[in-house]
Amino acid sequence: MNYNETISFLYGLQNHGIKLGLKRISKILDALGNPQYQFRSIHIAGTNGKGSTAAACDAILRSHGFSTGLFTSPHLVSFTERIRINCNEIEEPDVIRIADHIRKNIKELSEEHGDPTFFEFVTAMAFFHFAEKNIEWAVVETGMGGRLDATNILMPAASVITPISFDHQIFLGDTIEKIAAEKTGIIKENVPVVSGIQKKEVSFLLTKTAHEKKTRIFFCGSDFSPKNLNIGHSASSFDYLDPEFSAEGIQLNLAGAFQAQNISVAIKTVSLCLGKNAINPDKARSAISKLKWPGRIETISDNPPFILDAAHNPEAAETLAEYLKTSHGSRKIILILGMMADKDITQILKPLLPLSSRTIFTKPLTERAASSHQLNSAAMDQGYTNTCTTDNIKDAIDLAYRISAELSVNGEPAPLIVATGSFYTIGEIKAALGAERILHDLTEKL
Description:
It is built from 16 helices and 17 strands. It is α/β, with parallel strands linked by helices. Strands 4-3-2-5-1-6-7-8 form an 8-stranded mixed sheet, with helices on both faces. A 6-stranded mixed sheet has the order 12-13-17-14-15-16. Strands 9-10-11 form a 3-stranded antiparallel sheet. The longest helix is centred in the middle third of the chain and has 18 residues, at 257-274.
C-alpha cells in the first residue's frame, strides 16, 4: 500500500466504532512482542490540557538528554502529528511499513477476536515505533477516559490527571463523578500521581483512589504551584514553586493562565520520574520557553488578529472566554464557531456569545458536525441574533475577513477573529490557510 491507501485503511477501522477495553490491545501488543515494556512512560488522562501537558513533559525530558516518544490525539492537519520521536512527526514510509507489519501479524487475532478499532491500531503503531527507535521515555495521552482506554496497558513511572469536566458523556457517564472514575482508572499501585487543579468532588475521588492504590498524589495549587503570573496576549511568565524543586522566571510562549498550571503539572511529573534534584532549572526553563502546541489559543495572524482554540466542551469554552476578557479587553471579536452535534452546544455557546460582535456559524467536513443552522438556532434560543451561517470553513474565513474590514473603519482597530468549537474546525482552518493536509485526514478524529 502507498501512504494514502494506508491512511484509508486506518480510517476504515473507524467503521468498527469505539470499543473500550484492554483485552484486544493486550493481545495485539503480545503479537508484536510487547513493545510497551521496552521504554519508561508517563501516562496522561483528563478532560482539558492533556496535549499541552504531554508536550511539556516531552520537552523537559528532551532538554535533559533523553530520547522521547510522544503519542497524542487528535491531530489537527496530518495523521503524522499523533506519533513523534524527539518532537519529529513519524514519517510517511514508517506509517506504511508499521501499519502493514501490524496488519499481517494480527490477522489471525482479528479473525478470532474481531478487527481492532482505529485507536487500538494506532496505539499499537505508536508503541511499536517507540520500541523500534529505542526511545528512553514515552509520554502518552489517553484517547478517551482512562480505565478502558487502549493506552492503559502501560505501567508508567507516573500518572497524570489534568482538569476533569464534562465531555464524552455517552461513553464515560453523565455525572462528573462517573467521568472522574473512568479517568482515575489509569492510577496504578505504587505509581505516583500528579493532578491539575480539580473540582472538590474530583479531588476527593482522586485522593481516595490514590490511597486505595497505595500511592502518593500531588495536587497543583497545594503541593506545588505556579506563582507570580504575568499574562500577555500570546505569552506569559511565572515562577514554579515546589518544596523539592523551584524555578523562577519561566517564560511560556503559550497564551492563557491555565497553561502555567499545565506546565507546572509537567514539571512536577518529570521531577518525580527523574528523582529529587534531577531537573536542571536552566534546562527546564529553556525547554518551556521554546514550547509550542498548535490549536490552543494559537495566534496565526496579527493583521487581522486571528486566534485558534479547539475549545470543544463547556469548561474549555469558559477558559477561552476568560482569556479573551482578560487579555483583549474591549476589542471587538468576530467568532467563527463549528462544533460536533454530540457536544453540549448550549453550554459551549453560553460564555462565548456575550463577547462576540458578530458570530459566524459553520460546519466542518465530518458527519458528526452540527449544521450551521442548528448552531444558529441554539444561539437564537439564548437571545443572540447578530449571527450568520456558512456552509463550509472557507466561506466562514472569507466572511470573517469581510466583516473585519467593515468594522475597521474610522480608526477602529481590526476586530479579533476567534475560531473555536472543535479540533475539526481548527484543523480545517489551518489547512485552508496553507497547512499541508494529507488525503483523507479530514475524516474522523478521536
